[in-house]
Design brief:
Blueprint (H helix, E strand, L loop, with lengths): L22 H7 L18 E7 L16 E2 L2 E2 H11 L5 E6 L4 H11 L5 E5 L4 H14 L8 E6 L7 H14 E8 L6 E2 L5 E2 L6 E3 L3 E4 H14 L6 H8 L3 E6 L12 H12 L2
Parallel strand pairs: 1-4, 1-6, 4-5, 7-12
Antiparallel strand pairs: 2-3, 6-11, 7-10, 7-11, 8-9
Helix pairs in contact: 2-3, 4-6, 6-7
Length: about 280
């Protein structure tokens, strides 16, 4: 089981993975910036692998091919995520989970990114849970990855997560056991009473983002147990909350860290890309 965290941080709760903000963790994580490295309490660097899930389809975008190859500001969506993890100083390995038959295209994107870290590719499954498990299997089976202590799992359809966010997630995961970026849910969601009237809206609901980070041993065990039970979570955090006792803290998310799902999202992505382009 994971060691006791250095300060109290409530675990995520509820199947919806809408969770209360953890003020102390959030405030502390804001001090981590790209260019720093994440460290454990004993001052040693934490070996970290990032898994990028790129096995989706383009059906909701009305595309014939995988949406991760949609062009945004001159680059395929997945290139933005690959470049971000390559620039995050605390990421030591990158694993790309792709659809069958797309390794050549993924390899071309990776080569163009000119990363300084090892990149591993594997074939995903038919569901998100299967693809997450495929990425974790690379870690479990590879001797080159046996020292990985932390794992981040990220949706390739979120191309604009920054290296700063990656570093903050890693730092909080190293300190606590798990971390998820999130933003307050402030877009007109309300509760109702049993008789159908509006009730005061709770102020502790959040929209989850990725990358989500967790300690490797607990994450691998959670996905083995989930596979035995036939369980599939809506995201990594739901599987972790169901099958581990890890403390999972929120770090402040980023407004630009949108998920590109529908064709209309590409226009917003272009505007964001123009700000992120270097």
């Amino acid at each position: 089981m994971p060691s006791t965290p250095p300060w109290n941080a409530p675990s995520i709760s509820g199947r919806t993975t809408l969770v209360p903000v953890v003020g102390r963790i959030a405030a502390r994580s804001k001090g981590v910036r790209a260019g720093d490295r994440a460290f454990l309490r004993n001052g040693l660097h934490v070996t970290t692998a990032a898994i990028v899930l790129a096995g989706g389809s383009g059906s909701r975008m009305r595309r014939d091919d995988n949406k991760v190859f949609a062009q945004v500001h001159g680059l395929p969506l997945i290139a933005w995520s690959i470049r971000t993890f390559g620039r995050a100083p605390s990421v030591d390995h990158l694993i790309v989970v792709a659809r069958a038959g797309e390794h050549t295209r993924i390899a071309a994107v990776v080569e163009a990114a000119d990363l300084d870290i090892p990149v591993h590719t594997t074939i995903g499954g038919t569901t998100r849970q299967d693809s997450e498990r495929a990425g974790l299997d690379v870690i479990a089976r590879s001797t080159a990855l046996r020292d990985v202590e932390l794992v981040l799992i990220h949706d390739a359809a979120r191309p604009f997560a920054t290296a700063d966010l990656v570093e903050r997630v890693i730092a909080t995961t190293a300190a606590v056991g798990g971390a998820v970026p999130a933003l307050p849910l402030d877009d007109g969601v309300y509760r109702t009473t049993s008789d159908g009237h509006l009730a005061p809206r709770p102020d502790d609901l959040y929209r989850m983002q990725t990358p989500q980070g967790f300690r490797t041993a607990a994450l691998l065990d959670a996905y083995r147990r989930a596979a035995d039970d036939g369980f599939a979570g809506v995201d990594t955090a739901e599987t972790v909350q169901r099958y581990t006792s890890l403390e999972v803290a929120i770090v402040p998310g980023e407004a630009d860290n949108i998920k590109v799902t529908f064709s209309g999202d590409l226009a917003a992505a272009e505007r964001i890309a123009a700000r992120h382009a270097v």
